[in-house]
From TrEMBL:
The keyword Glycosyltransferase does not apply. Transmembrane segments: none annotated. The lineage of its organism: Eukaryota, Fungi, Dikarya, Ascomycota, Pezizomycotina. It comes from Neohortaea acidophila. This is Acyl-CoA dehydrogenase/oxidase. InterPro entries: Acyl-CoA_DH_C (IPR013107), Acyl-CoA_Oxase/DH_mid-dom_sf (IPR046373), AcylCo_DH-like_C (IPR036250), AcylCoA_DH/ox_N (IPR013786), AcylCoA_DH/ox_N_sf (IPR037069), AcylCoA_DH/oxidase_NM_dom_sf (IPR009100).
Amino acid sequence: MAVGEREGTDPSTYTSHYSKFERERFPANQAAWVKRAQDVAEILASDAPKRDNENKSPIAEIGLLKASGLLKVMGPKKYGGGGEPWSTGYKVIREVAKGDGSLGMLLGYHLLWSTTANVVGTEEQADSVQQAIIENNWFVGGAVNPRDNDLKITDDGDNIVFNGFKNFNTGGVVSDLTVLEGVFDGTEDHIFTLVKTDQPGIQFQHNWDNVGMRLTESGSVRIENVKAPWSDALGWSTETKRPIPEVLNIPFASMLLPTIQLVFSNFYLGLAQGALLAATKYTKTSTRPWPFGGDNKDTVTEEFYVLERYGQYAAHVEAADALTDRAGLKIDEVYAEADVTLHRKSINAERRGQVAAFVAHAKVVNTDTGLEVTSGIFEMLGSRATSRKHGFDRFWRDIRTHSLHDPVAYKKREVGKWQLLGEIPEPTWYT
């Protein structure tokens, strides 16, 4: 074990579940994929508080995602994937997050990173990347934190060479492939590529020990002389060693950003839904009515304030669910149109901006609703529910931790400009 490296969870933990998934039919439609995600969430929820407290590297949990097939939900059918659109991917993320926010987050990032070449690569690159990921059932992490200095990329002839440091990466320690992104030396041009994670030049610092999302291995990483062939530089020409304009110099090339922002919204929503479900079960089985209010009830489910609060939270969560689904369908429309046009030129700045605005609506509502629900459930549970063995706090800690990724205030400003001025959100690393 490397210095500072955490002990991993035991891969044999879920052996019986691996066998069960192997016996079951591969999901064939959205409903079946959602059901598979619900099964995985139920498994993860059964010991989530314990695993959260132990804070081990999620080796077994990633194995469970692999065995369930969820990593392949959006992969091409011709290579053994589910062939589902983003709207299904989002629902699957949401379901897994109900059981374990860390694994919902890891699945979401994997689905984004595994489809990177679909957005910024050539058709040939997208096809070869998808084939490799789906046929090998690889899990993809990423070291792409825009708040840090860019990785420096140099040319050594046949290869591009990455060097630098990132304060955050996602799931890298337990990944098979890592997405790297940096700036080509002497230019302002960015390059994305995917490399094998298990190599000496990718040096994880094993320093992720945060309040929430504790099983995401999101610590820092040093990149030293990591090479990739020029042919793996997504959207770049191997002959000119320059970006290919019809691939990268169009609004569609920035679709990764609203796509991942909606990933965030979906696991925030899943956390809120998971918290509400767990709280409901506990209230009905363990919470006692308050005997000193002057309007005493025989059971807690007759308490007016308990019913009122559950009603409020359930209504807000259901509204968030509908809004998030609508945003997911908007994402689907853009990707479907880009597939039809092949060169993606029909996706202009206005179209891209409208989708980003829909995503911003969902981000605002899910952040605010998620924080309110995950912190407020304790008022309906009682003091005994604060025991660490129950782990009710993990829902709030998870959403509180990740919602600091980028300030939701800026999403509210985007929505305000769209509403008041008709201005579409400007493409940035966070929009």
